[in-house]
Structures are given as C-alpha cells and as structure tokens.
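Hypothesis: this fold can be encoded by more than one sequence.
Test: take the structure tokens below, design a sequence, compare later.
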C-alpha cells in the first residue's frame, strides 16, 4: 500500500500542470460550452413540448 502511494506521488511530480492563463481560458471555454448546451436543450425541450401540446390539444 505504501509503495502504491509512493508511485502515485512520483507520477504526480511528472504531471504538466497548466499555467494560470491556460487554466482560466479552459475554464471559460467549459462554462461557455455548458451554458450554450443547456440553453440549446431548453429551447429544444420547449419546442417539443409546444408541438406535443398542439398535437394532443387538437384531438
């Protein structure tokens, strides 16, 4: 078990961590993408709901 954690620590030292500027850019990209996808699916859901309301309401 101790050997495992030593290996983990050794590998973590080899990781190339992003600089602050890169991290900020990546974070903004992820948040923008998530918001865009959420709004897109909300609009699609609203459209499908209205379509179903029209179809069901016409019978």
């Amino acid at each position: 078990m101790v050997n495992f954690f030593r290996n983990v620590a050794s590998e973590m030292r080899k990781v190339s961590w992003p600089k602050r500027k890169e991290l900020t850019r990546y974070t903004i990209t992820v948040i923008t993408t998530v918001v865009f996808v959420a709004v897109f699916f909300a609009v699609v859901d609203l459209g499908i709901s209205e379509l179903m309301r029209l179809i069901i309401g016409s019978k």
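Residues 33 and 47 are 21 Å apart (CA to CA). The chain is about 85% helix and 0% strand.
Hypothesis status: open.
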